[in-house]
């Protein structure tokens, strides 16, 4: 053994000397050691021994001792060369659990051997650190498959669990460090973007870590790859102008062409994206207003989108209502501007404001009718006219009726003519008749006697909206529910079914009324009466389902299922299965299976009714058939579809530039 330059290291070597080394020590030296051990030593002598240098066994001063210690530390650090440090780093990395599974394993092995490491040590490190967690997961999935669990369910559970682990363990600082350490994006990034499950995980992570550079960069890459519709509702989509601009244009171009049901399904994500921040809301509204002026053929659809955004933003801050008014040219009409602003901001009507509006709209050159068509303003006027208990002075009642009639009869693109005047008179008369009936709020036999009169005027959409205001008031009034089994409620529900047939666009309002009636707390009713009442509501919801209002109804039942009596959910499922037959759409199958899973979470077939089990089997067979057809189509036309999709993307971008 080589002699250490310091006494400290010599002591370490003496303590670490093996028994074999002790055998080669001379006898004389052993005797001296024994004598030293036998002789008692004073504390002073022990301190001197600790301060004795390895060469001269003489005491040293405290100053010399501290100098020796400093020199020892310096010499120890200078012994580790950069090669040694790299070698230690590689050894530490190779000894991490399952290091052989790391993407850096091959580079670490090469680097370790390059700096002088032995290949045998590499094999030892990798084999001893191997745990095989990934292989354990594969083996567990194989066992589940043998146990009879469907492979699709196994893969879904496995991916969901893997997502949970990544979400819990994800560190944005580490991710940003890895991302910024390289001049080029990671090679695995493109593979993640193509896979829908990885994209879904990235969306979840970006919602939780909004300031992560790597995730924000990936969101931009996803948008550039043509998946901007998927990120429409992400908060990170509004962080970058280019991403948000593309999402806004594509969403608007899609929304103006959709039917009512599809429109409502996609509207929520669009509202969430545009209302993330004040600047995104202002930009979206300004863009829509510009489009309304330049695209009159799509003006009504765009106005609807603008109004929906306004309603959503107003929930967060009422100032959004005032901003929307400022974006219009209502400031050119100061009298109606102050009145409409006051009505909308206070959410209540005043006789003074109504008189001002009436005076302006009865002039020879009235303001544009669009200012009367704000949804919140119309709802206030209808509530005053048709909800029982609202008192309007008889002298001014005609002014309310005139404003409502004017808002629905006048064509904003042309002046009124004689035919419009006839319609104006018919609607005015209908509103007066229905207003008197609703304000009197007849019950029992009196209600039966006016059913025919009300239905005679039900073809007018504005009368339909007014009657629904009256029905909602009565169905949500707990004082009326104490006598639930009388004639009133069945008549109200019959009106709602009639409205579903006559006015398809009112089905969403009908569903909201049924939901409010279902969820009302009736204190005076017994449990069985409440159960019967809710079953009656579900019958009417199923009727709404049969009219074609499918997905919104299923969404409602899915939200109810965990909270309501399971017998009501089973009743709905059985009622629906009685009126449907295959083939089914994928969205319908997913919703129905989700509802069934809520009441049967473990998928036990013994607890399912035959009709439900038959439906699940039909869904399974249809899914297999669809997958086979898709695989065949993909094998035949992969290249063709890729070229066509690329062409469509470029064409859409050109169209957006021309339109916007």
TrEMBL record:
<feature type="region of interest" description="Disordered">
    <location>
        <begin position="1"/>
        <end position="84"/>
    </location>
</feature>
<dbReference type="InterPro" id="IPR006942">
    <property type="entry name" value="TH1"/>
</dbReference>
<feature type="compositionally biased region" description="Low complexity">
    <location>
        <begin position="1"/>
        <end position="83"/>
    </location>
</feature>
<dbReference type="GO" id="GO:0003723">
    <property type="term" value="F:RNA binding"/>
</dbReference>
<comment type="similarity">
    <text>Belongs to the NELF-D family.</text>
</comment>
<keyword id="KW-0804">Transcription</keyword>
<dbReference type="GO" id="GO:0034244">
    <property type="term" value="P:negative regulation of transcription elongation by RNA polymerase II"/>
</dbReference>
<dbReference type="GO" id="GO:0032021">
    <property type="term" value="C:NELF complex"/>
</dbReference>
<keyword id="KW-0805">Transcription regulation</keyword>
<keyword id="KW-0678">Repressor</keyword>
<keyword id="KW-0539">Nucleus</keyword>
<protein>
    <submittedName>
        <fullName>TH1 family protein</fullName>
    </submittedName>
</protein>
<dbReference type="Pfam" id="PF04858">
    <property type="entry name" value="TH1"/>
</dbReference>
């Amino acid at each position: 053994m080589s002699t250490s330059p310091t006494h400290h290291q010599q002591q370490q070597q003496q303590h670490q000397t093996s028994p074999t080394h002790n055998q080669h020590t001379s006898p004389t030296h052993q005797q001296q050691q024994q004598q030293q051990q036998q002789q008692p030593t004073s504390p002073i002598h022990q301190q001197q021994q600790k301060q004795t240098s390895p060469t001269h066994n003489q005491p040293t001063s405290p100053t010399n001792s501290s100098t020796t210690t400093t020199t020892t530390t310096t010499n120890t650090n200078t012994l580790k060369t950069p090669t040694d440090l790299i070698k230690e780093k590689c050894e530490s990395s190779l000894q991490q659990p399952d290091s052989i599974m790391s993407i850096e394993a091959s580079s670490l092995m090469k680097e370790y051997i390059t700096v002088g490491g032995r290949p045998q040590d590499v094999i030892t490190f990798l084999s001893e650190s191997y745990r095989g967690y990934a292989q354990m997961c594969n083996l567990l999935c194989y066992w589940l498959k043998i146990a009879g669990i469907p492979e699709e369910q196994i893969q879904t559970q496995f991916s969901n669990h893997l997502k949970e682990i990544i979400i819990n363990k994800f560190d944005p600082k580490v991710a940003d460090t890895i991302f910024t350490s390289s001049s080029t994006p990671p090679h695995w990034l493109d593979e993640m973007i193509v896979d829908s499950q990885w994209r879904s995980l990235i969306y979840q992570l970006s919602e939780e870590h909004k300031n992560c550079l790597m995730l924000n960069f990936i969101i931009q890459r996803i948008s550039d790859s043509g998946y901007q519709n998927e990120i429409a509702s992400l908060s990170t989509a509004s962080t970058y102008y280019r991403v948000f601009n593309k999402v806004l244009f594509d969403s608007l171009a899609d929304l103006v062409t959709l039917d009512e049901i599809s429109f409502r399904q996609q509207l929520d994500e669009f509202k969430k994206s545009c209302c993330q921040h004040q600047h995104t809301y202002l930009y979206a509204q300004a863009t829509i207003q510009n489009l309304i002026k330049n695209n009159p053929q799509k003006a009504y659809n765009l106005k609807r989108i603008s109004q929906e955004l306004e309603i959503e933003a107003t929930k967060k801050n009422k100032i959004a209502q005032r901003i929307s008014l400022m974006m219009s040219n209502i400031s050119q009409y100061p009298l109606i501007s102050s009145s409409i602003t006051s009505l909308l901001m206070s959410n209540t009507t005043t006789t003074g404001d109504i008189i001002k509006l009436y005076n302006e709209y009865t002039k020879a050159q009235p303001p544009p009718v669009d200012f009367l068509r704000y949804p919140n303003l119309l709802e206030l006027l209808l509530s005053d006219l048709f909800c029982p208990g609202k008192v309007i002075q008889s002298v001014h009642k005609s002014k309310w009726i005139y404003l409502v009639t004017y808002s629905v009869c006048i064509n904003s693109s042309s002046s009124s003519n004689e035919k419009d005047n006839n319609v104006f008179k018919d609607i005015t008369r209908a509103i007066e008749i229905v207003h008197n009936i609703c304000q009197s709020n007849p019950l029992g036999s009196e209600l039966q006697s006016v059913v025919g009169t009300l239905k005679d005027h039900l073809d007018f959409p504005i009368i339909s909206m007014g009657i629904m205001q009256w029905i909602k008031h009565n169905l949500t009034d707990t004082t009326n529910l104490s006598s639930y089994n009388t004639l009133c409620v069945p008549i109200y529900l019959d009106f709602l079914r009639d409205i579903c047939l006559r006015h398809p666009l009112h089905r969403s309002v009908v569903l909201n009324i049924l939901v409010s009636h279902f969820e009302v707390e009736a204190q005076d009713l017994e449990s069985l009466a409440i159960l019967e009442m809710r079953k009656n509501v579900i019958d009417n919801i199923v009727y709404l389902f049969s009219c074609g209002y499918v997905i919104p109804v299923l969404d409602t039942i899915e939200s109810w299922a965990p909270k309501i009596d399971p017998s009501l959910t089973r009743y709905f499922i059985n009622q629906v299965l009685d009126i449907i037959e295959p083939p089914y759409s994928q969205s319908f199958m997913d919703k129905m299976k989700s509802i069934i899973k809520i009441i049967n979470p473990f998928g036990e077939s013994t607890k399912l009714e035959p009709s439900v089990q038959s439906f699940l089997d039909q869904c399974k067979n249809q899914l297999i058939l669809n997958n086979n057809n898709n695989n065949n189509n993909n094998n035949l036309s992969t290249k063709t579809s890729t070229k066509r999709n690329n062409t469509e993307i470029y064409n859409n971008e050109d169209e957006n530039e021309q339109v916007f």
